[in-house]
Specification:
β1 and β2 form a beta hairpin. This protein has one helix and 15 strands; from the N terminus they run αβββββββββββββββ. The protein has a single domain, classed as Beta Barrel (Porin), CATH 2.40.160. The protein is mainly beta. The protein has a twelve-stranded antiparallel β-barrel.
Length: about 240
């Protein structure tokens, strides 16, 4: 069994848990919900940087009240790139809007898929994990979401990121637009100076006929990166 086959089978096992009747379940007594989502993307572009080509990106999560824990991953369908993000999020409805705070651990295994470096939590850019503290705020009075992130571990620059996103639902499709920028000088992590626009882009998505409890969709995004001086088109199929 070659490496690509192993990756696809692993991702399929995660996605099978999201088949009708299991995509989202609830423990009525404990108030626990859990589920699995997933996408296949034509290329993996993150904050204006292309990290890899065609990838499968499953997300498994569990929520109890306002607290959610989960694992998101990106598995390259060709080549050796893998990423696993472990996150804990807390959500609150405030009088002036909605607030979400997230602790997120970005883990990049060795190129050959060896997970032996999982316990390498060194700092200064030498570890296998980078921890970012993220915040999202959607004010009641405006149709926008403000985003911010700060790298707390394993980034010598302690890079800070900010962005603004708007989401619009129309009868036939959904539209979103977003712009992101560097909030401090980050020569090692982002290769940016404070105030640099890292990317801006827009996404159009459309839901497909529902299959059981699944809500499949297709989307197309155009992302321009002034830092890379490139424009990316990203197509996705997910649920």
């Amino acid at each position: 069994m070659n490496r690509l086959t192993r990756r696809v089978l692993f991702a399929c096992l995660l996605l099978i848990a999201g088949l009708p009747g299991s995509a989202e379940a609830q423990d009525e007594e404990g108030g626990v919900t859990f589920g699995v989502n997933g996408e296949v993307v034509s290329q993996y572009v993150w904050r204006g940087f292309k990290l890899y080509g065609t990838s499968l990106q499953p997300d498994a999560w569990m929520s109890l009240g306002n607290l959610t824990v989960g694992v998101w991953s990106s598995i390259a369908l060709e080549g050796d790139f893998n990423e696993f993000d472990y996150y804990v999020s807390w959500y609150s409805e405030l009088p002036v809007g909605e607030l979400t705070l997230t602790w997120q651990d970005y883990f990049y295994p060795e190129a050959d898929g060896d997970l032996g470096d999982f316990f390498n939590f060194a700092s200064g850019g030498e570890g296998a994990h980078t921890v970012e503290i993220l915040g999202e705020f959607s004010p009641t009075a405006l149709p926008v979401t403000f985003l911010g992130g700060w790298n707390a571990l394993n980034d010598p620059d302690h890079s800070a990121y900010g962005g603004v996103r708007t989401d619009i639902s129309l009868p036939s499709f959904d539209l979103s637009a977003e712009v992101g920028m560097a909030l401090n000088e980050s020569p090692d992590y982002y290769g940016t100076e404070a105030g640099d626009i890292m990317y801006y882009g827009a996404t159009v998505s459309r839901g497909l006929p529902v299959i059981g409890s699944l809500g499949p969709y297709v989307s197309a995004s155009v992302i321009h990166s002034p830092i890379e001086d490139k424009t990316f088109w990203v197509f996705a199929l997910g649920f």
